[in-house]
Each structure stands twice: as C-alpha cells, then as structure tokens.
Amino acid sequence: MKSFATEQVRTSASGIVSRRTFVQSVASGAAAAGVLGWKDAMTLHAAELRKQGMSCILLFMNGAPSQFETFDPKPGTKNGGPTTAISTAVSGIELAAGWDNVARQMKDIALIRSMTNKEGAHPRAVYQLHTGYLPSGAIKHPAFGSIVGKELGQADFELPYFVSVGGRFNNTAGSGFLGMKYAPFVVNDANRLPSNAALPGDVAKDRFARRMELMKDLEEDFAQSGARKAVEDHQSIYRGAANLVTSPNLKAFDLGQEKDSVRDRYGRSPFGQGCLLARRLVEQGVTFIEVEHGNWDTHQDNFERTKTLSAPADKGFAALVADLKERGLLEKTLIIWMGEFGRTPRINGQNGRDHYPRVFSVALAGGGIKGGQVIGASSADGSDVKSRPVTVPDLFCTFCQSLKINPRKENIGPLERPIKIVDGGAPVKELFS
Amino acid sequence: MRQNCVLALAATTVICFAGNLARCGEKDDPAPLLNNDPWKNSSRSPLQAGEIDRLVASELSKRKITPAALTSDEQFIRRVMLDLTGKLPLPADVTEFSADKDKDKRTKLIDRLLASDDYAKHWSQYWRDVFAAKVTDMRGRAISVHFEAWLHDQFEKNKPWDEMSREMLTANGQLPVRLGRGETEVDAKNGAAYFLLSYQGQDAINDRTAETSRIFLGIQIQCAQCHDHPFDGWKREQFHELAGFFARLADRPVFEMVNERRQIVGVALQSRPFGEHMMPGKDDPAKGTVKMPKFLDGKSVRGRSNDNERRKSLADYVASKNNYWFSAAFVNRMWGEMMGQAFRQPIDDLGPGKEVTMPDVLARVSAAFASSNFDIKQLLLAICTSDAYQRQIRPGESAGDHLQFAGMAPTRLRSESLWQSLVTVLGSMGPPAPMGGNPFGRRFSVEGQFKDEFNFDPSLPPDEIESSIPQALMLMNNPTIQQRLRAQGSNLLARVLTAYPKDDEALQMVYLRTLSRKPTDREKEKALKYIQNTSKRSEAFEDVLWALLNSTEFQTRR
What we know:
The complex is a heterodimer. By secondary structure, chain A is of the alpha/beta class. In chain A, 34% of the residues lie in helices and 15% in strands. Chain A has an eight-stranded mixed sheet with strand order 6-5-7-1-8-11-4-12, sandwiched between helices. In chain A, a hairpin with a 5-residue loop joins strand 15 (410-412) and strand 16 (418-420). In chain A, helix 10 runs parallel beside helix 11. Chain B has helices spanning 7-18, 37-41, 51-63, 73-85, 91-99, 105-114, 117-132, 138-142, 144-156, 161-169, 194-197, 204-217, 236-243, 307-318, 324-339, 359-371, 376-384, 415-426, 446-454, 469-477, 479-485, 492-499, 503-515, 521-533, 537-549, and strands spanning 174-176, 249-258, 261-271, 277-279, 289-291, 411-412, 556-557. The model of chain B is unreliable at 1-28 (pLDDT under 50). Chains A and B meet through helix 1, helix 2, helix 5, helix 7 and helix 8 of A and helix 1, helix 12, helix 20, helix 24 and helix 25 of B.
C-alpha cells in the first residue's frame, strides 16, 4: 500500500480536477479507501512561489530571425554578408548594426550564441519553442506561458494569467492539457482594448450588473431541474468575465494612460507598443506576456528585410529592459528574446537565408540573469556550435530556474499520464550570478 | 520515460488487488487479450423494438434505481433536433410538434431528421472535430475542409462505418492546400485521405498508429510508443508492430509555380517500395529494431508485402465484424454523444480491462451494429427511440456521477451547434467564415472567431469540457452579436415587440425562440417583474434576451 503515498504532484487544469477519473482509472476498491494524499506539500509550496511575484515576458520573433543580422554578426566573412558589427556597453560584445538601443542596454542582457536544435519546420519548431516538446498527436502540450500562469498565478486574480499580444498567426500552442483557465488571452492590437472586453456603448455598468443578476435569477429553475453543476460552473466563469469587464485593472490594457514620451520611448510600432503593454501588465501582476514580432522568414532579400524588422525590435526590447529596471521590476521579470530557429550561414541565390536550427541565438534579461555576458559561441563561419551547446530543454530549464519553477514537476496529461514541465536538459548555470 | 509514469506502482498494486489481470510492467507478463466475454455471448441478431429498454431496465432493477420520467414533447424536440442535426427548433416547430396527436410522432420526427441535409452536415462536422482534435500541424488543419466535405457525402448516403474506416485507412493520392492568400477548391472525393495526411513528416507514423487505435478501436496504446504501458499492459513492441502497417507510407508536399514562386499547393500520400519501421532503441534511439507489421491480437501480414497490401490488411483487421473493439468504439461514442454519458468514459478509452458501465448492453448493441453492416442511421434510430434516450435530465448525487442511463445527463453544445442556435435566434451574423484552405481567414469573421473560441475535443468526457472567460466575453459583449440583440430595425426583438404588445406574450415568444420552451411560472413572474421595473420596454426585453442567450441552458443540450 505504500506505493500510493506518492510524493508526486498531480494537478490538472483547476487544481485536482481529474481526481475522479484518476480514482476510476486506478481501480475501485483500494484507491477509494482514501490512501491517496491529494493535498500534498507542493500545494503549500506553490503558494509561497506565487508570493514572490515573478513574471516572464517572451518576445517571440516569429519566422526565425537571422543570428548573423542580430546578435551573432560575422563581419568580413563570406557567410557574414554585408552586415557590419557595432560595439556595445560591454567591451568585447558586438551586435549587428541596427541594434544600437540594445547595445546600450547590454549590461543587463545575456546572449546565448550556441543554441542548437534539430527542428527546421516553422510550425513544429514554433510549437517546440513554446512548449519545450515536439508536437505529438497524442498530447497537446501547454505553452510555457500556461505553465508559468499555473505555477505563479495568484488565485482570484482578475486579469488573465497569460496574455498574448499580436500573436494572430501563432496559433500552434495554447494551454493544451492544462485547460482553459491557463489559455493565452489574446490581444490582437496593443493599441486597443482586448476583443469583447468593453461593454457595448448602450450598456453602462449598472445595466450590466442588472443583466447579470437577471441571468442568475432566471437560471435557478434549470439548475433545480438537474443541471446544478453546469449552472454553477457557468456562473463562476461569468463572474470571472464580469470581474474582468468591470475591473479597474482593465485599465492596464489601456496604453492611453501612458505619457506620450513613454510611448515614444518604446517606439510607435505594434511591437514597441506591445512591449509597453507587457510592462503595464507585469505591473498589474500578470505572470506571462508574449509579444510577437515578425515575420522574420527571410528566404529572399534577407538584409533589407531584417533591417526593417530589427528597428522596432531593437527599440522595444531595449526600452522594456531599461524601463523595468528603472521601476525596480527587472529582477523579478525574465525577458526572453527568441525565434524558432536560426538562418543558414550560406546566403542563397535570392540574397536570402534559409532555415537553420543547428546554431542560433537567444537573448535573456532580468529574472536573476546576469547581463553583459555571452554564453557559448558559434564557429567562425557560423555553421556550427563552437562551444557550450545549449538545447531547447536546457533553455527551458534555464527559464524555470529564473522563475523558480521546478522543471521536473509533473502535470497530468491525457489519460492521467504525468508529464514533466521540462523533460531532460539542465539550466545554463553560468547565466545566474 | 519509464520513470515518468509514477502511476505505474500504484496501478500495479491495485490491479493485483482487483485480481483479474496479470501484473503489468514486468517483462514476462502476457499482453492484454483483445477478446471480450460479453461480446462472445451476445446475440448477433438485429435489435428488436424495445430491446434496449428491456436491457437497461433489467440492469436498473438490479441496481434498484428508478428511472427519471420521460421528456415532454417540448423537451424532446429540442434535444433530438440538436442531437441529430445540431439545430435549434423554431417556435412553430415546438408548438406544432406538441399539438400533433399522432402516436408515432416522435419516431416520425427522428426519421425526418435522419433524412435531412442538416443531419449530414452536423455529423460531418462532429467527425471532422474528432479526427482533427489533436492535429497541430498548420497544413494538417487546413486540409480538414476536404475531409468534412467527404464526410458529408458519406453521412448523406448513410455509408456503413466499416466502409468509411476502410477508405480512410487505405487512402492514396493528394489533397490541395494553400496557406497563403487564396482559396482552394474543396475536394470531397479524396477527403478520406485527410486521416493519414493530417499528420506529416517523420513522426507521422506514430501519430497515425496512435490515432488508428484510439479512434477506430477505442484502445489507447500511444503511451507504449516510448515504454511498456504502465497499467494497460501494452508492450512497446506492440505499438511499433502496429506502426509496421504504415511503414511504407510517406507523405510529401506538392509544389507548383504560383505567381512565379514555387509554392506548396498540396500534400500527397506516397507508397515507398521498401523500408521497415524501426522501434527506436531505449538507450540510443538511433539503434533501433525492425518491427514487422502485427495487429494488436498478434495477427500479421505476409512478409515483404507492399504499402497498399499492408494497409488493406490493417483495414481488414480493424473494420471486421468480428472485432468487438471496432464496433463497440463506435457504439460507445454515439451512445455517449446522444445520452450525455457513455458506457465508458473517456469514450476513446474502452479497453481492454477497463471498467465499463453495463458491458452486456454495450456488447449487445455493438453486436447488432456489426450485423446491421454498421448501419449508422439504424443505430441512431434505435438509440433515439429508446426510453433511455427520451428521459428527462436528472441530477447526479455529485458532479460527474454516472446516471446509469436512468436519466439524461445535460452536456455542453458543441461550437457549431451553439453558433447555429445563435443564428437561429438572432438571424444572420454577417458573412460566413471562409471555407477554403486558408485557416487564418476564419479569424476575420465573427463566425470563425466564435467557432474557434468555443471549440473543444469531442472525445473529452463531458465533465472535463471547460468554458472560458473569452467565451463568456464573446456572448456578453461581442459588438456584432450585441447589434443583433437590440430591439431595433428588422431584428428579432423589434419584430416580437411589435407583434406582441402584451408583455407576457412577448416574453413567451422570446423563451420559445431561445430555449424552445415556455417560461415556468416562476421565471415568468421574475422576468415580468424585471420588465415592469425597467422604464423602457425595449431595453427590458433586450436584457431578458441577453440573459437567456448567456444562460447555461442556451448552451446546453438537455
């Protein structure tokens, strides 16, 4: 019987929602005797973690940016192309030209130039870099944002745990088996309130409250007729939605509350304003914000297109790091800048670069990351990792370490299958001072 | 991976405790047997009138359960229309049906619905979602339009389930797909190829294997891909032997010059002349072992057979009249969809060795389904005409209780049905979602946004289907929906309020339109009081309509 008293954490969407199915699947008799310790120590531990107020901002460069034209330039080499390099606030670290703002902020930013992976197809790699797992038919893995929301989000929080800004085309990973509670709340345009969050013009807050009350009133007979559970679940979701709609915190989504000078600092691009929104949401306690920027899939005309894409990315990323630092939030906020893979060292016939997962770059800041350093290196011609290879699981373990999440914690997937937050890998210890 | 399965120990102990299965997880354990005792003993004759009720009644009397009362006509017509066609009845349908004196009117209604185009539409969408639920690949998702069109034809012609399954497993050829701008023509003819093409690339073989077993047989063997199944007893070898049937099937993108650029315009299945499936080595994945095709019961296929021969023999094993799992997986799913609860939940995790409610009833209905040559309409007719189907909803003692088919369990409407209901009440909501190959196009119509937002995997147990805040926001606040809700112009409410100057009559009409029933006395009293307390009549009715459209009941089949 000892084997029942497992120390593993088994939670799903809403805490231990699938207890019933679990008991069923284990068997009738013995399990029902109450030997299973559901409320284990981890529940308490989780509450401690939430108090620490860590959060994470993922700047996702959809389409896969070229490392040569961003954070691993190779000026003067055949593969480096026409791209030149600039010096940064940290002597010895150079970035590609066009990244001047990030260069000035370099003391707070660490680069990994030795990322290595095998997946070179966009949808699969986007999925992998969002979930830590390759897609598999049997399991829809949760995006890391959903995991962070579940681990660090506070109960009864009025805003969503996980907000995704501008990610209209990135729809390959949601909350997966963690359930709707941790699904990304999508904001298409940072300059506007989220879809359907605003009350219709002719419905003031008091009318809205009357409507809610009327609905509750009229549902009672249906609840009594045999649908009590359904009605209760429904009303709890509606309470959450109503809280959001009428919450003063909803103002966090309103960039109009910011001074023009602040908005200008981030750049008036969709990405820049998305970064500003991310900062506002972190201030309100949202645990994970993804801001998408792209398309970086530069098979043709790589150099011009990357230049155009880099300008708003440089401005937004640098402003975000600086602003969070000034507000004393950088230590508690991990910022990740990455795409799904890198691009080929070889410049193709159309002056473009193709897909290249073998070596690419990622930038990290905040969340205990020691800035002003470079982890690993690519070879001189950029075709391979020269030192300190970092895999996707390594990277995800690093995120976990920064956010103080246990990467080996298991969530319960379909059919009660336990699935680790990260399978394998080890954190890049050098990143933490 | 093996140490991941923390349930292994617990499960082993319990299974030993239960004493009816060998201990799993040890090398020399026998694999689970694929036979099923109730099935062996079941009569293969067609179901007789009232047979389901006699079987369920005797089970209920054994358990000393008194069944719930039968539905009223009002309750029945809403349920059966939503279940068979995904549509809400109009007020006239409800009143006419209730007034009809014909003793056989329920059966006649069922017949009419089964013959309707909406029946084919509803079930083609349902099965599209069953197969698409776990597809993450963008191209895989985009080609589901062809599958839906093919399914529509199949349901319209009442194609037997074994023939449909066979076609999916043995499909060849290609399907058009465009991810950029532009539409593709829908290819209904080869839509069956969707099942195999929805998973692409080098891992596709594992997904094809797992989904074949899960959907067609109700057997979940996918865990055994990486390790012996901790409590079902499946061996890694068995998963990879099953995969062997797909070893010589590959897929490839189809390129064409479009606007002077080489672009992917389709995906194609392609047989390979040679090659075998390798089971990856446990320590070093690169050091694999060749696995020749073998079905779950150990039946194999002759050596050196080609791709088409392999998949044909797989289809023979799967879609056989003697295969309990094939028939029972379908019956369990349909029964669950119609009754709100299945014999076994999750509906795609039937066994072997799983706890099933009323296994004899499942086996008997499955046997009759097989001997009817897998006639889907006949099965649905038998279910819908049974008392078990026609009972009222009943609360369980606690959430998720199995009602033993003594009453109906209310369940959430699927996104297509909910959208259809909304349109039935409020009228058209603007241009429909584009059908073509561009999956992004959907996002730009309210219909597309709505369906994406409310979508869920139809294989999930009903009590694990969750609603979300964005769903609630959509129904609460979406500008297009709110526009249609207002009592103005040619909107529903404007017409109702003009036609029915008396508040109680207008209220009854709003109830009939939204919930397909008259208000209860209590509801009438509450609503009328609200209307009297609100200064503007139109505003008061807008609020009532809003409350009903946002209510649990509107989103529930009951």
